[in-house]
Amino acid sequence: MKMPSSSAQDRQVSVWFQKIENGEIKLPRFQRHQAWDKSRICSLLDTVTKNLPLGVTLLLNVDKEKFVSRYLVTAPETQGRVTEHLLDGQQRLTALWRTLHNNYESLDYFLYLKAYDERLDEVERTDESEVWYESRWESKSGNLRPLWVDVPGECFKRGLIPMELFRPGEVSVEIDVWIEQAMASAEPSADKEHYKDLFKEWMVKQEKLKNKIRDFRETISHFNLPYLALPSQTEKETALQVFINMNTNSKPLSQYDIIRAEIEGVKGISLDDYQTKLDQKYPAIHHYFELPFLILATSALMQGKLPNQRGMWDMSKESMVENWDDMAQGLSKMAIFMEGQGIFDRSRLPTNAVLAVLAALYVFIPENLDSRGRFEVLLKKYLWSSFFTDRYENSAATHAFNDFVALRSIISDETKADGTKYQELDVPVLNRERYPLSTDDELVRVGWPKRENIRGRGVMAVFSKLGAHDFADGAALTRQQLVDGRRHYHHVFPDAILKEVGSESYFALNCSLITDKTNLNISAKDPFEYLKDRYNWASEDIVNARLQSHLIPVAELKCGDYQGLTGDEKTNKVKSDFAKFLAKRASYVAKAVEILADGRDIAASEIIRELEQALTAQEQPEV
């Protein structure tokens, strides 16, 4: 049968939204569900707000549905007549729909406008506008944190405007209300001198902000998201083959491929040969990220460029080759440093933004042992602060660049324009007023570390730094164990017990990376008894040593037998025991983070002893 021709057409975002609202567009069920992470969603929205080109989507026109279908996530289920199946473009349309309707469960998206950011440092190099996200979590009191996200005035002083205000359609009332609340604190009081002039100036600023929002709304509403349309008479098998071809066949050139071709054309050398030799000489590097990215990002920083696509394009390719040996040694030292901090591979790495920064800084650190030891304390402070502040939640490349510049200035003993030397407070990520460390309350809510989760993986990195001794044989965690697949993510408080009482179990503080053993019957045993049965501990000292290397509070694990308990009595006790366990472990981890972010090493026994002594002192009655 002859393949039907497809037609390429333009379509604005506002029209896409109308069709979604009417239920005219659905997805064939063979498509995977939304898979884009928050960083990729921000990148898409940046493209739209800056009115840059975006690839075509693929539609199948529908007379009668050939495939079992479903609506886009959170789209109205109108049960109306379906006219189109979306074969390719689900991720883009779903991300646009959900961000502009603000219906992600634990994320809020904002358009960041540099001109309105009252807290911006002069050293920061952020684009005039960017799409940012803010993670949300529920506190013990039931409030959604951080609280400032729901306060227009607090958002505005950060230069952040909620993305839902830019959605197509009639939202003028929402915009007016938000602007009024956002700028309320700046409204002059009637008793001020020159009140009328000040009030007029305030109204002009309001109107200017409204016009700014209107302009971005217009850009988004009229943004062209083109599509190819297969005719409705296209056979089911043909449409499916086109879908497969669109999603899996051609692999576009990467940035590294293009730079490689450029260097080979200009310098007459093979960048592949250079990379192969680097990997053979320093095999530990590739455990942390793809070598092409690390090579380009580190080289860009060494040349004073941002470690992102723009910086990589702008850097001198000749200098990149000339400085290759320094870059390679920097990457090697970075890998050694990371292993010394208990981080062995990419799957356990909280954020890759730190890698090129560390590698490039090693290029500037003197080789003598005293200097290297002193500056590696600074690197430790940087690393752990990056894991346990929100510095790298947004604009990671820009923030990494600014941190790098300040750290390099300290290492190189540079002088600022005012004649003073650079200090740690000049490094944004080390400034605790701007970037406070995670609190106990935040750590309690951190999700499962196997997922891409900066804070969750950071928590596991703390345990790894302590050795994360296996419950069964007491062996410390090593890279080889991870490579061999001998370590697995296990629930400390058994998942089966928590599921039985309807409690969520997938928290970083309920996780330990240990070897797998056959699950025995958990039944209604308390966690300590269950673990003791599994791992055949020989003595109380051995028990404590192995558990403490994961900062597991032993007393809270010995929470009592659940056998014989039923109904609400069992539910309440399990939930209460689990909450106490999480709270105590959170306090241990928070203390460890405080020490690590100060550039010091940690010992589990000292952390636990110090906190328990402080708790005992608080409980002593006043004389």
Q: What's the arrangement of strands in the largest beta sheet?
A: 1-11-3-5-2-4
Specify the helix fraction band. Answer: 40-55%
Overall geometry comes to globular
Average pLDDT works out at 89
Cα-atom Rg, whole angstroms?
28 Å
Q: So how many helices?
A: 25
Secondary structure class reads alpha+beta
Question: Could you please describe the fold and organization of this structure?
Answer:
It is a single chain. With 623 residues, the protein is α+β, with helices and mostly antiparallel strands. Helices cover 48% and strands 10% of the residues. The protein has 25 helices and 13 strands. The protein has helices at residues 13-22, 38-49, 90-101, 152-157, 172-182, 195-221, 236-248, 255-267, 271-281, 291-302, 309-314, 317-322, 324-340, 353-364, 369-387, 396-411, 440-444, 454-465, 479-483, 495-500, 527-535, 540-548, 554-557, 567-596, 604-619, and strands at 7-9, 25-28, 57-61, 69-70, 84-88, 107-117, 129-135, 137-138, 144-145, 158-162, 227-230, 487-491, 511-515. The strands form four sheets. The protein has a six-stranded mixed sheet. Strands 7-6-10 form a three-stranded antiparallel sheet. A hairpin with a 5-residue loop joins strand 8 and strand 9. Helix 13 crosses helix 14 (353-364).
List the helices and strands and how they pair.
Elements: E1 7-9, H1 13-22, E2 25-28, H2 38-49, E3 57-61, E4 69-70, E5 84-88, H3 90-101, E6 107-117, E7 129-135, E8 137-138, E9 144-145, H4 152-157, E10 158-162, H5 172-182, H6 195-221, E11 227-230, H7 236-248, H8 255-267, H9 271-281, H10 291-302, H11 309-314, H12 317-322, H13 324-340, H14 353-364, H15 369-387, H16 396-411, H17 440-444, H18 454-465, H19 479-483, E12 487-491, H20 495-500, E13 511-515, H21 527-535, H22 540-548, H23 554-557, H24 567-596, H25 604-619
Helix pairs in contact: 5-6, 10-13, 10-14, 13-14, 14-16, 24-25
